Amino acid sequence: MNLLRQGCLSSSPSRISWAISLRTLELYRWLRVRQPRVSIQAWVRSICDYHNITYQRSYWQHFSDTFDVYLKIRRGVELRVRESLGRLDHHWRVKNSCPCCQNQLPGEAPLQVSVMGVLDGNQSLKRVRLREGAVGDPHEFTSDYYIPEDRVDVFKHDVKSRQQISSKTPEPQAWSKDPEEATPADGADEQTTCTERWKAAQSDNLKRMWAIYRETGIFLSACRHGLIWWICDMVLSGELYVQFVAQRMILQLIETLRAKYPLAIVNEALDAFGDKVGLGYDIGCSFTETIAKSSISEKAKAKGLRLVVPAFHGYAHKRLCQLSFHPLYAGGFGIEDLETAERIFSSFNGLANVTRYASRFHRHQSIDLYAQQHDDDKYQELCMYSP
Length: 387
Fold this sequence. Notes:
The protein has 16 helices and ten strands. It is of the alpha+beta class. Strands 3, 4, 5, 6, 9 and 10 form a six-stranded mixed β-sheet that branches. A two-stranded antiparallel sheet has the order 1-2. Strands 7-8 form a two-stranded antiparallel sheet. The relative contact order is 0.15.
């Protein structure tokens, strides 16, 4: 406490060999959310250069540990404030994040779509897995942005997979990672050109992805104004799962797409927002049938869930599909393009270089920190939207 009164902080409360001013920690926090590409090492090197001090490798570790303590103190203060204000409900942030989406005026006529949102996956925020036998950071980061892996895995085998393996493709090995998991399009009775093109695009991405990642990206949802609802880690998969099998010096790809991520988010959206939720998803046409065969089918039907294909992606779908699922033709969506997720991913790409080799704890902490600032910025921009 005496150190804090002097405006400094150390990573250790008992053996203090290093102390960093709170102003320096706060300045780096603001720099990190505005320019996430600036790593801790680059920041510490800059400070050393400014003060004409020879940089040592131990400096960045001391700063990293102290910065973790600083952020933990901030989170503790925020938690106490939320507790005092009665905002500890699981869905409080999501239901109160965007006044344009959630607030209703007295006597307002009911809308065809009460809340509009988007969901999509992106592979830029991959994280390299630890080598076999290595022990990682045991700390767990909790955030109301993240849907935990165990809650996502509830939908792991919700829909039966429809794999089409050609005669030239080897049978999956017994140790392969859940080859029976369904794709977001496996609910459709027939393979359509819409899903074939989507799978082909995903496959091209994964041909460039080595099987060295534990988290291969994130799957997120947001309202139409860009305020983030939930984030899932795509673990040992993309929207696809990839496993490279060495056989006769040839790398062979075994892939299955996973439907559990969008199902988990749709389930959360139905619980949080209730009736008449409208969501845009790249393969909303086929995913509508997948939901109909899942464990949340009755809930989705009772609450009037509607799925459409975002405007830009929609033009790659066949004409008959567009007439039913393109937002310009589907009633209730106005002139929204529902490509919000792509804009969010574009801004999140700056986190890639600081999270690729980070621990799971630090990766979640960085994403959560950036997501909070992203939402604060989008909240300020709400006045720019025309009614």
